[in-house]
Amino acid sequence: MLTAKKVSKAYPNNINEKTEMNAVSDVTVEIQDNAVTVIIGESGSGKSTLTRMLSYIEYPDSGSVFLDGTEITALRTPELRKLRGRVQLVMQDAASSLDPHHTAEKILAEPLKLLLHLDAVQRKSRISELFQMVQLPECLLKHRVSELSGGQQKRLCIARALAAEPRYILFDESFSGLDVTLKKQVLTMLKELQKTLDIGMLIITHDLDTAMYMADRIYVMRLGRIIETINHPRSFSDFKESYSQELVKAALYKRSALQYTANGF
Amino acid sequence: MFRKIFRKPQAVIGLSMMLLVLVCVIFAPMFAPNDPNKIDILHKFAEPSDKYPLGTDDMGRCVLSRLIFGARVSMSIALPTIGILAVISTLLATICAYAGGLVDRIFVIVSNIFMALPPFLVAMTLVGAFESKAFGISISIIAAMWVWNAQVVRTYVLREKSKPYIITCRMSGCTELRIVLKHIIPNIVPHLLVLYSTGFSSVIIMISSYAFLGLGLETGTAEWGAMLVNADKLIYSHPEMLIYPGLCILFAAAGFNLFGEALRDICDPREG
Amino acid sequence: MLEVNDLCIYTKDRRETIVESVSFNVGDGETLGLIGESGSGKSMTSKCIMRLLDPRCFTITGSVRWKNEEILSVKLPKDFRGNRIGMITQNPMTAFAPMIKLGKQLEMGFEPKGKASKKEFYERLNEALKRVNLYDMKKIINSYPDELSGGMLQRVMIALTMMKGPELLIADECTTAVDAASEYMILGELEKMKQNGMSMIVITHDFGVAARLCDNAAVMKSGRIIEYGRIFDVLRSPGNEYTEQLVSSSMLFREGVC
């Protein structure tokens, strides 16, 4: 289990104002292995900051993060480096999270070589497998990242995260801005993969539809705090807090129109 | 990549110009019709002829031969200078920018001090300290210019370092050294190419300017800058003596500039 | 009101087809949805209608008639864009200049001259901003674009567009880049405008948005309209597989289905 216990982090607010703003306040979340956890929140709710702390890119100001029992916030950089690969992060902007001059093949080869220590032959076959998993055509292997389309770059990011064979993958708003049909394909694929590969997933999103489709557990986050936790969400009426219900109202606005128009009820 | 170079007219022009200069440098003895230093007072200011394609100068030396050999002198100082300059600046800047913290702050303070000194002042101060004039010129240029180049490289490194893909690399298991060598440097190479190719033309011009300040090589050396100095008293009687070496300097500098910029566009068409 | 007939857009040398044989109508007070994914040509079509495509880069054939007058190849009157047809785009951040305060930028769009007309302008702006649920006009006009959230900026855009009083509004993926709460507010605004009689073209890839706002729908793929009709018909009996895919992707979660 990947847990954040009572973590807080503050950032200075504006260049003009010297006050600090709490990005994350006293948050406790559990990412279970073998399940999909979703954090729903608006922009500014602190979800990205939380994700960075969970993937040990940043240290919290207070509180701790535990990875399978080890307190990673207590570790120093050299020891942390040994744990790289257990947790992978897929960021929102695919284009800037990949080295633009590397080919797709090289991007995938890196974790295979450095984390899994595969030799060239093993790498080649594994890269083919990964490409198939994310439904990328093999002809793109030698293309540079800057030559790929947005959707292809996103899938490459996901493939890279999978290549490291992590225990946990965190998706930070990785699906917003994707074409809807592609989004459906990717999410369905991830659902499959999660079951077969036994990975714990954390999805950060503001889209309730995505959340309900994927989640085994939902955390609702607002202004740096967790305001509601829902285990095994089944329907929109599971949301009890008033803020959560606001979000539901927003989602239902479109949904009801679609259902009514499509089904007549 | 080489195909791309030939498709871009700017690159081809720049490359041709560069190659012409380099050919002169390497094959000077073959191309020059006469000995550049052979004095023949009786035939001074001769008209262009078969023997002297561009005529002779005030000491009866073949102008064309002097220009061709002049390329050799200029390049043989300029090339190693820019090479060492590039290596020092890049290394220093990359280490300081990447390490950050105290190391970087010291670098900033030191370079601020150096930047307060005008390059020519530094150059003039240093050049006299060396026995070999050529060596002196080279060292003084390096000492004067390293700080400006290093600052620019530092900015590039800092910019790359803050990009999200560096985080991704760390997650993929890269050590910091690997990140610098395989990710940061390859991504700033296009910018470095432009920096150093345009820097190269500055160096050529600087070397030529030394002669103007009287800090150049021994009088009478076949070198463009020296030829310019020599010709300044002939500006009304024989202006071509001024124009020829001037054009050569311009040609060499422009060639490197054009090629460098074209190369940058090829490597990184998105930027610029 | 707006009739598009057999519109084709090619690159200048006719090598690539961007949009082919697109025809649709927008009647008075009607809302048309142009639904498709990236690359379907929907944005290009709307830009073409607004005459925003550079004739040096594109070859355009077909006819676009605004109130029975051909507008494709004629010189447009100065107030055509903005006053007759208004447009809201996807990314509000790039619609504003980053280094100029919003108040000044908004003024630039209207050029009020003299103290009296400035006062009037700001009154109208206040009204418009209130209609999009932005009540702190002072804060907004003194902010730079990057100080406001995407959702707020989008609403400022809407307010601005409304102040010009267009007869047809083109909303090009205007909720794609904002979060759910802002989307809700913006869609609410658009619905209000629709109820007040505004004719609209809503460009989106989300059938949920289309179902909410549109009367008619045109589904676009690879530059062609593959389905066109009343929104009810398109949703209830999609004519082809792609439309079905789009509809099902717009609503992933089926209640009661695990």
Concise structural overview:
Chain A is an alpha/beta fold and 265 residues long.
Describe the structure.
The complex is a heterotrimer of chains A (265), B (272) and C (258). Chain A is α/β, with parallel strands linked by helices. Chain A has 2 domains: 2-86 and 168-263, Rossmann fold (3-Layer(aba) Sandwich); 97-165, no CATH class. In chain A, 38% of the residues lie in helices and 25% in strands. The radius of gyration of chain A is 19 Å and the shape is globular. In chain A, 47% of the residues are buried. Residues 15-19 of chain A have low confidence and may be disordered. By secondary structure, chain B is mainly alpha-helical. Chain B has a single domain (2-267), classed as MetI-like (MetI-like fold). Helix content of chain B is 74%, strand content 0%. Chain B is elongated. Chain C is α/β, with parallel strands linked by helices. Chain C has helices at residues 42-49, 80-84, 92-95, 102-110, 114-131, 137-141, 150-163, 180-195, 207-213, 231-236, 241-250, and strands at 2-11, 17-26, 31-35, 58-66, 69-70, 85-88, 168-172, 199-204, 216-221, 224-230. The longest helix of chain C has 18 residues, at 114-131. Chain A binds chain B through residues 55, 57, 81, 84-85, 88-89, 91, 93, 96-102, 110-111, 114-115, 146, 157, 160, 163-164, and chain B through 163-165, 167-175, 178, 183, 186-187, 270.
> How many structurally independent domains of chain B?
1
> What is the CATH class of chain C?
Alpha Beta
Structural class of chain C: alpha/beta
Strand arrangement, major sheet of chain C: 6-7-8-3-9-10
β-strand number of chain B: 0
CATH architectural category of chain C:
3-Layer(aba) Sandwich
Distinctive features:
heterotrimer; A: alpha/beta; Rossmann fold; 2 domains; six-stranded mixed beta sheet; four-stranded antiparallel beta sheet; 8 helices; globular; B: 272 residues; mainly alpha; MetI-like fold
Sequence-ordered SSE layout with sheet pairings:
The complex is a heterotrimer of chains A (265), B (272) and C (258).
Chain A: E1 2-12, E2 20-31, E3 36-41, H1 47-54, E4 62-67, E5 70-71, H2 77-83, E6 87-90, H3 104-114, H4 120-133, H5 150-163, E7 168-172, H6 180-197, E8 200-205, H7 208-214, E9 217-222, E10 225-231, H8 242-263
Parallel strand pairs in A: 3-8, 3-9, 6-7, 7-8
Antiparallel strand pairs in A: 1-2, 1-4, 4-5, 9-10
Helix pairs in contact in A: 3-4, 3-5, 4-5
Chain B: H1 2-7, H2 9-31, H3 63-99, H4 101-115, H5 119-127, H6 133-161, H7 164-171, H8 176-212, H9 224-231, H10 240-267
Helix pairs in contact in B: 2-3, 2-10, 3-4, 3-6, 3-8, 4-6, 5-6, 6-8, 8-9, 8-10, 9-10
Chain C: E1 2-11, E2 17-26, E3 31-35, H1 42-49, E4 58-66, E5 69-70, H2 80-84, E6 85-88, H3 92-95, H4 102-110, H5 114-131, H6 137-141, H7 150-163, E7 168-172, H8 180-195, E8 199-204, H9 207-213, E9 216-221, E10 224-230, H10 231-236, H11 241-250
Helix pairs in contact in C: 5-7, 7-8
